[in-house]
Amino acid sequence: MSHHHHEINEKNLGITIVLNLAITIAQVIGGVISGSMALLSDAAHNFSDVLSLIISWVAKRLTNREQTINHTFGFKRAEIFAAFINSFTLIVIAVVIASESVERLINPTPIEGTIVIWLAGLSILLNGLSVLLIKKDAQGSINIKSAYLHLFTDMLTSIAVLAGGFAIKYLGWYWVDGILSLAIAAYLIYSSWSIFTDTLKIMMQFTPKSIDIKEIASAVQKINGIKNIHHIHVWQLDEHEIIFEAHVDLEKNIRISEFEDILKEIKTLLKKQKIGHYNIQPEYTVDDNKELINNNV
Could you give all domains of the chain from N- to C-terminal order, each with its CATH number? Predict the structure, then answer.
């Protein structure tokens, strides 16, 4: 059984955390001074970037810990929890921003456009650098991808805030601030939803969408010597490793060495489905429920 490990560049991650902390502090101060809800929304998103990067870094270090008697799978699912937390916080932040934006649209207030322009420009520059620093690591980890998504969406929202700053300064369109904040909230939910649902499914141990249990069962039951396969469970330990377990009913009372030959055929079938870890329980004349899915387990 092979496992995929993706090593992240911790130095780049550390630099990214510092950059986003600096952006957050600058935007909070600027948002308060200018009165811009969009700028404060962007600051809140940037602060979530900092938290997501720290969570991602901690999760990655936990994942690399060795397996022990008390932790037989190690901490492999730590990155899934991190990605779930990161995507969930983005959705919560989006709801808060949307609520505040509606209030701002109902009761618009004067905004200092110059401050908005300068700080949005700074955010675009530093977020763009952050995105480049962790882009490579995001390709091999859903955990880092969730943090990357934080940064990338923040860079896009900063571009929108910059455009809004120009509209406020030169056209006096203060209502643009509320509209931009609503757009930012909508985009945050859109960009986070798939990671949120994917990680939730893994934590709930749902069958991976790439796996067709009926197709696997049909193929296994065609193997010579197998009468039936039942009590199947398929789940993901993390984003890369799929685990399969089942009971197989044998036609004859065979030797262990003969069953090992059958296991090799089963392993070949499962490997084609990218299943790397399996546990098969052989049975002969066992009186139990022979359904694919046992609702009592």
Answer: 10-203 (1.20.1510.10), 213-283 (3.30.70.1350)
